[in-house]
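hiii, so i know i said id send this last week but things got crazy w the move. better late than never?? heres the sequnce for the chain we talked about at the cafe, plus the structure i predicted for it. fair warning i was half asleep when i ran it
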Amino acid sequence: MEFTIGLWLVRLAFLALLYGFLARAFTALLRALTIEQAQAARPAGIAYLVTPSGERLPLRAVSAIGRDPGADIVLRDDAASSRHALLTFDDGEWWVEDQASRNGTLLNGVPAHGRSRLAYGDVLTIGRSTLRLEQA
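okay and structure toks below
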């Protein structure tokens, strides 16, 4: 009889621990979801690349540019490489770095070698695409 009562107490303790774990897990998921919703409500980018047609492409602190569908800025340009260039926002300044692309990256018509500083209004040429950096 004492063994049966002890076994029931162990089962109840296990169930209490299980429900406590599930409650904490759902609370953490709900908190993460509300944070994601708050971030989604903010403007998409901290700056934009603007195409000649006026399309504004939002940038993040680190943005990959190229033909690859996984890139942050996807170009429909056969002259662009799949991972053509990388734009980064570091210490309050924008930088562009060519990623060993086939045709290179031009900054205001001059080939960008290594990591080059960008200013708002500068024009990037990637393949046959021209993109102007604008402040958000």
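btw The chain has one helix and eleven strands. thought thatd interest u
miss u guys!!
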